[in-house]
Design a protein that fits this description.
The chain is of the alpha/beta class. It folds into two domains: 259 residues, Type I PLP-dependent aspartate aminotransferase-like (Major domain) (Aspartate Aminotransferase, domain 2); 116 residues, Aspartate Aminotransferase, domain 1 (Alpha-Beta Complex). Helices cover 41% and strands 12% of the residues. It has 15 helices and eleven strands. The strands form two sheets. A seven-stranded mixed sheet has the order 1-7-6-5-4-2-3, sandwiched between helices. Strands 8-9-11-10 form a four-stranded antiparallel sheet. Strand 2, helix 8 and strand 3 form a beta-alpha-beta unit. Helix 4 crosses helix 12, helix 5 packs across helix 12 and helix 13 runs parallel beside helix 15. The chain binds pyridoxal-5'-phosphate. The site of pyridoxal-5'-phosphate has 12 residues, from helix 6.
């Protein structure tokens, strides 16, 4: 023992009872916060002093854990994104289940990398994948893997499609594969284009197909585009169908796209980030007919399964094609006849990551604890809430329904019939109304452009939301909009403020 080398065990607690007491306090603080979530703002800005605290330099020496935790309590926990709050409906962010938070803690305690190894975590992921296939009526012999998000799931699926339709892409690269071309509606999520760029094919290899009045892909135009592209020497490879577009929740006619892909020998991928989960609600399933016929399906579990970040899934119908795209067999990862390295399933052979977290536990515990029917009920409730909110907007003399699909997304704006505003003034008014609402902490919708106009947008993937929460949004939009109008028509006159 050389005395000047610090004891490595100092990275563990030196006083376990004190560590345990602090850990219990953390649990109490977090659960107190969850119980009282309604009393907190849905979002609040990070104050300047707090922001500045994140500029402190790299710590070289130790500080007591209770002191570090105090800093977390003061500067970090109060400033979350807000999606745990019942009145957060921005972008597409799930609300997070308390039981899954505990699962994350347990998974971190195990600290198992879930690769090809005989462990309970690998078996739990295999079981969860079987459950998810069962849940979405996919064949038991299809391939699947959990991922960090639907962007990653889309990337994995499109890699398989590119390779399956290419010429020995893993060895030769994409140069010898003609000009592989992908198709999806103009409403397709940006992660699809990003995947195609990462695959080395260039954004121009993603062809955007126009949509109909309900923002669904025009299959007739798709057919014309593909015929034209073939004549021009391109190589159509894959069509992406949307089960719930991000902006309005539109669902492409998946059955018709599936028929078309089968007839034209094209890979059919479905991006079902949140919308795919509507499959588990009997009344909504018919909307998604054709989803079960895709060659690959990407969907999130951290959106409409309400699980904490980050967990998603991808299915690939052709198990061999999936493995052919990702399998690697270096000596140090080879299988042995017995022992930990004998496990027959290899998740790294289905994905980009080698070392992978134990994402499956939160899915497993949430499904075990609540049962699938509770998720179906929560999803059905969110859709009913969106329909009810859209009806409220349609009835309001001051609000206008800008766009809505059949699921949980509604786009709207403030537009009183009496006001004669230019389109630019209307956009400004709605932008200010949204920011004021968000800054108030009362509710967090997000925004987007529908037909070039600024709209407020809600996507309800929140199991805590009540009808009263959405009524509050409807009323506050009217009130804030009216106040802003009054301020504008008074030309900034302070007396009207
Ligand atoms: C959110 C979303 C994605 C990307 O998923 P991440 O989990 O954010 O990576 C892809 N497609 C659609 C339709 C989405 O809503």
């Amino acid at each position: 023992m050389t005395p000047d080398i610090p004891d490595a065990s100092s990275l563990d607690p030196t006083d376990w009872p004190a560590f345990r007491r602090l850990a219990h306090r953390m649990i109490d603080d977090v659960i107190d916060g969850m119980e009282a979530i309604r009393d907190r703002p849905a979002w609040q800005p990070v104050p300047k002093v707090v922001r500045q605290s994140f500029e402190e330099p790299l710590p070289r020496t130790a500080r007591p854990l209770p002191e570090v935790y105090e800093q977390v309590l003061q500067t970090i926990l109060p400033y979350p994104r807000g999606n745990v709050h019942p009145r957060y409906w921005g972008w597409v962010n799930g609300s997070g289940l308390p039981v899954a938070m505990l699962a994350e803690f347990l998974a971190a305690a195990m600290n198992s990398s879930v690769g090809a190894f005989e462990t309970a975590p690998t078996m739990v992921e295999a079981q969860v994948l079987r459950w998810l296939k069962d849940m979405l009526d996919w064949p038991a012999d299809s391939s699947a893997v959990l991922t960090s998000g639907c962007s990653m799931s889309n990337l994995i699926a499109l890699t398989v499609a590119r390779n399956a339709r290419g010429d020995d892409v893993r060895r030769k690269g994409v140069a010898g594969s003609g000009r592989p071309t992908f198709y999806g509606s103009s409403e397709t999520h940006s992660s699809i284009q990003k995947a195609i760029e990462i695959l080395g094919l260039g954004a121009a290899s993603f062809r955007r197909v126009p949509v109909d009045d309900e923002r669904r892909i025009r299959v007739d135009v798709l057919a014309e585009m593909i015929a034209g592209d073939r004549a021009a020497g391109l190589k159509p490879v894959c069509v992406i169908g949307n089960a719930g577009t991000v902006l309005t929740g539109a669902v492409d006619p998946l059955d018709r796209v599936a028929d078309f892909c089968a007839a034209e020998d094209l890979w059919f991928h479905v991006d079902g980030a949140f919308g795919a989960l509507a499959w588990i609600v009997p009344g909504l399933k018919p909307l998604l007919a054709g989803l079960e016929r895709a060659d690959s399906l990407a969907f999130d579990l951290h959106k409409w399964m309400y699980l904490p970040y980050a967990v998603a899934c991808v299915f690939v119908r052709d198990d061999a094609a999936h493995h052919a795209a990702f399998a690697m067999a270096p000596s140090y990862l080879s299988r042995l006849p017995a022992g930990p390295a004998s496990y027959p399933v290899s998740f790294p052979d289905r994905s980009i990551e080698l070392t992978r977290p134990f994402r499956a536990l939160k899915v497993w515990m949430a499904l075990q604890t609540h049962g699938l029917d509770a998720f179906a009920a929560a999803i059905a409730r969110n859709v009913a809430q969106a329909r009810r909110f859209a009806a409220g907007v349609a009835r309001s003399p001051e609000l206008e329904l800008s766009a809505t699909g059949p699921l949980n997304v509604v786009c709207f704006r403030f537009r009183p019939a009496s006001a004669a505003l230019t389109p630019e003034q209307e956009d400004d008014l709605n932008r200010n109304m949204l920011m004021q609402l968000q800054l108030s902490g009362e509710a967090v919708p997000s925004h987007g452009l529908v037909d070039g106009r600024f709209v407020l947008r809600i996507a309800i993937t929140n199991h805590r939301t009540t009808d009263a929460d959405l009524d509050l949004l409807l009323n506050r939009c009217g009130e804030i909009g009216r106040t802003l109008m009054a301020g504008a028509s008074a030309g900034g006159d302070r007396r009207t403020a």
